Amino acid sequence: MAMAYFGRRYMLSASHRLHADSLSDAENRATYGKCNNPHGHGHNYVIEVLVGGEVDSETGMVVNMATLDEMVRTTVIERFDHTNLNLDPLFVNQVPTTENLTKAVFDVLKNALPAGKLDYVRVEETENNFFQYQGQ
Amino acid sequence: MIELTRRATFSASHYYWNEGWSQEKNEKVFGRCARRNGHGHNYTLEVTVAGEADPVTGFVVDLKWLKDVIENEVLAEFDHRHLNLEVPEFAEKRLIPTTENIAIAAWKRLEPAVGKAGGARLSRVRVYETPEIFAEYRGEN
After folding, report:
1. Global confidence as pTM
2. What ipTM was reported for this prediction?
3. Mutate to test the interface with A, among B27, B98, B138 (most CBs of A within 10 A)
4. Chain B: nearest CA to A2, how far in angstroms?
């Protein structure tokens, strides 16, 4: 059987503020610029998920999209959509940069999916910048 | 090593149906995709080849050549067709034209032509069924 990949793109909207408690206000300002503005700002994030595996001979699928959608909805979308990322327990001790959000989403989905299925998570913060993590 | 990708689009109809299953099971597993009159998509095909840039031309492959390969090997058979009924891989073998299987079928059509030309190898084929749904095949078994 052939090994293939199935990819799906989801959207969620959330706010964040980039601010490291270990840095001074001046250092935060210098490091994060307008992303450090005190009241935060938001993005429409695109979450791209790539799942790999054998193509099932009965369904022709690597994964059933309805199953994947439900898993992503319950574990990622409902958790982060229309929230302030800084308030999520995951970001109490780390800055909610899109790098860290990408890793967080990868870890959440890796635990939710059967072992070895998740290939990468890509998070697009805007149309012009995106981040990808494969668990390495 | 450079990877070069060429994008092309085609429009086709399909449905998902496993002949070995009951109607009820087909509808349960495949949902709306199981409707027997079919439905269609504007597919985007991304073909990536990998190789070294030729020292004289600076090309990994000539993009016009790659465009023609995609046109002749895939689009000529897939575009404005009903995949289940008209495309041999799916019609003759009763293979379900999922996005995964379309990516694999496109790979199998492209790989001999790309390989024969020398200089570059087919690296991956990605098929977008919609901007939010895609599948990829890298020739792995």
Report:
1. 0.92
2. 0.90
3. B98
4. 4
